């Protein structure tokens, strides 16, 4: 891997460790705590697909007439991830997107999905993120997270989209979720089987081939352009900070719930 990739990895390692070891994981003591976490996390599960589909649009040919576009390895990576994320097999062998699988997991454990579903309903009708956030009363940390993702999408800079996809999503996801999976089976009953399956699927898929190919994709897109690498490093730091802020928001909500319950 390139020297620039290793430089970014070194710079962001403290942020990665902060996310992987975030206090929100140890705060999840019961099923009600998990419900709160999921109500925040579901926004990141959803906006990942918009980022992924943007990369598919920019790095593969999605128009007619078709022509070969870009690197075949990049096309393979993007299309393979799209297939997995948009039409994976759920716990019962039924084809579903990972977002739909996550909603199923929320339903199974009794988490409220009204907020995210109302947000998507308003967004579909208005195509206005801010209006959808306001109408659904989306937590600020979640709206900030999604707004950042869409700022990068709207930048039309594929190397930045690739950077946050690689370092803020694909390369990060295995380590981040291992922290939760290690204890989840012991701490929670079988009514979170779908959530456990969802986490294990991400660790299995993202921890090896996809992560490596995503790093190569970012390296190819930044190439020898030093300005691209500097922008990629800066935007990666911002993306990880947004994740930390999202987890901080979930942690505050969980702790407030505990305080209120003890009054």
The count of helical stretches stands at 13
Biggest sheet details: 2 strands, antiparallel
Mean pLDDT: 92
**Given the C-alpha coordinates, what overall shape results?**
globular
Which stretches are low in confidence, meaning pLDDT under 50 for 5 or more residues running? none
Give the spatial strand order of the biggest sheet.
Answer: 1-2
Structure classification: mainly alpha
- Please estimate the helix content: over 70%
Count of individual beta strands = 2
List SSEs in N-to-C order: HHHHEEHHHHHHHHH
- Residue fraction in strands: under 5%
Radius of gyration: 18 Å
How far is the N terminus from the C terminus? 54 Å
Task: Explain what this protein looks like in three dimensions.
The protein has 263 residues and is mainly alpha-helical. The chain is 79% helix and 2% strand. The protein contains 13 helices and 2 strands; from the N terminus they run ααααββααααααααα. It has helices spanning 3-20, 23-27, 31-59, 72-86, 98-109, 114-126, 129-136, 140-154, 158-170, 173-187, 193-206, 209-222, 226-262, and strands spanning 88-89, 95-96. Strands 1-2 form a two-stranded antiparallel sheet. The longest helix is centred in the last third of the chain and has 37 residues, at 226-262. The model has no long low-confidence stretch (mean pLDDT 92).
How would you sum up this structure in a few lines?
The chain is mainly alpha-helical and 263 residues long. It has helices at residues 3-20, 23-27, 31-59, 72-86, 98-109, 114-126, 129-136, 140-154, 158-170, 173-187, 193-206, 209-222, 226-262; strands at 88-89, 95-96.
């Amino acid at each position: 891997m390139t020297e620039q990739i290793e430089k970014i990895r070194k710079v962001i390692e403290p942020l990665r460790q902060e996310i992987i070891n975030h206090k929100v994981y140890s705060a999840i003591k019961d099923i009600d705590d998990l419900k709160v976490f999921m109500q925040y996390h579901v926004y990141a599960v959803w906006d990942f697909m918009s980022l992924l589909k943007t990369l598919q649009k920019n790095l593969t040919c999605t128009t007619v007439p078709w022509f070969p576009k870009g690197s075949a390895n990049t096309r393979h990576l993007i299309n393979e991830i799209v297939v997995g994320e948009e039409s994976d097999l759920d716990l019962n062998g039924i084809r579903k997107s990972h977002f739909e699988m996550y909603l199923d997991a929320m339903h199974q454990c009794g988490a409220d999905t009204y907020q995210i579903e109302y947000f998507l309903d308003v967004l579909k009708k208005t195509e206005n993120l801010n209006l959808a956030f306001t109408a659904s009363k989306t937590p600020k940390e979640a709206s900030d997270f999604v707004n950042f993702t869409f700022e990068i999408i709207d930048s039309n800079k594929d190397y930045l989209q690739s950077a946050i996809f690689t370092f803020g999503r694909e390369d990060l996801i295995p380590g981040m979720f291992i922290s939760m999976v290690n204890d989840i089976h012991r701490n929670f009953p079988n009514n979170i089987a779908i959530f456990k399956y969802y986490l294990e699927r991400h660790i299995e898929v993202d921890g090896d081939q996809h992560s490596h190919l995503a790093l190569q994709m970012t390296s190819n897109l930044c190439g020898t352009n030093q300005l691209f690498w500097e922008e990629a490093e800066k935007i990666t730091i911002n993306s990880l900070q947004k994740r930390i802020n999202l987890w901080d928001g979930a942690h505050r909500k969980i702790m407030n719930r505990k305080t209120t319950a003890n009054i």
